[in-house]
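Run log, item B.
One chain of 64 residues. Sequence copied directly from the ordering sheet:
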Amino acid sequence: EIVHIRDILDKMPEEQKNLILLKFSGYTYQEISKILGINLSSVGQMIARAQKKFKKLYEGEEGN
Protein backbone atom coordinates (compact mmCIF):
# COMPACT_ATOMS: atom_id res chain seq x y z
CA GLU A 1 0.00 0.00 0.00
CA ILE A 2 2.83 2.40 0.83
CA VAL A 3 4.41 1.78 -2.55
CA HIS A 4 1.06 2.40 -4.25
CA ILE A 5 0.66 5.72 -2.42
CA ARG A 6 4.20 6.79 -3.33
CA ASP A 7 3.51 5.95 -6.97
CA ILE A 8 0.37 8.08 -6.90
CA LEU A 9 2.19 11.01 -5.29
CA ASP A 10 4.89 10.76 -7.96
CA LYS A 11 2.22 11.17 -10.67
CA MET A 12 0.93 14.40 -9.13
CA PRO A 13 2.16 17.90 -9.91
CA GLU A 14 4.97 18.86 -7.53
CA GLU A 15 3.01 21.61 -5.77
CA GLN A 16 0.02 19.36 -5.09
CA LYS A 17 2.29 16.61 -3.86
CA ASN A 18 4.00 19.03 -1.48
CA LEU A 19 0.67 20.37 -0.22
CA ILE A 20 -0.51 16.88 0.70
CA LEU A 21 2.77 15.87 2.30
CA LEU A 22 2.95 19.03 4.40
CA LYS A 23 -0.72 18.87 5.43
CA PHE A 24 -0.50 15.26 6.55
CA SER A 25 2.83 15.88 8.26
CA GLY A 26 1.02 18.20 10.65
CA TYR A 27 1.95 21.62 9.30
CA THR A 28 -0.55 24.45 9.74
CA TYR A 29 -1.98 26.36 6.80
CA GLN A 30 0.18 29.34 7.80
CA GLU A 31 3.33 27.19 7.79
CA ILE A 32 2.40 25.64 4.45
CA SER A 33 1.82 29.12 3.02
CA LYS A 34 5.29 30.25 4.08
CA ILE A 35 7.08 27.07 3.00
CA LEU A 36 5.52 26.98 -0.48
CA GLY A 37 5.28 30.74 -0.95
CA ILE A 38 1.55 30.76 -1.62
CA ASN A 39 -1.17 33.06 -0.32
CA LEU A 40 -2.53 31.92 3.04
CA SER A 41 -6.10 32.42 1.85
CA SER A 42 -5.49 29.95 -1.01
CA VAL A 43 -4.01 27.09 1.00
CA GLY A 44 -7.26 25.38 1.99
CA GLN A 45 -8.67 25.40 -1.53
CA MET A 46 -5.37 24.19 -3.00
CA ILE A 47 -5.20 21.33 -0.49
CA ALA A 48 -8.77 20.35 -1.33
CA ARG A 49 -7.89 20.23 -5.05
CA ALA A 50 -4.77 18.18 -4.33
CA GLN A 51 -6.77 15.71 -2.23
CA LYS A 52 -9.37 15.39 -4.99
CA LYS A 53 -6.61 14.69 -7.54
CA PHE A 54 -5.04 12.12 -5.22
CA LYS A 55 -8.38 10.38 -4.71
CA LYS A 56 -9.01 10.16 -8.46
CA LEU A 57 -5.56 8.70 -9.04
CA TYR A 58 -5.97 6.31 -6.13
CA GLU A 59 -9.28 5.06 -7.43
CA GLY A 60 -7.84 4.70 -10.92
CA GLU A 61 -10.09 7.28 -12.58
CA GLU A 62 -7.05 9.07 -13.95
CA GLY A 63 -3.92 7.30 -14.68
CA ASN A 64 -1.59 5.83 -17.11
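Observations after the first pass:
- The helical segments are 2-11, 14-23, 29-36, 40-58.
- The two ends are 18 Å apart (CA to CA).
Flagged for discussion on Thursday.
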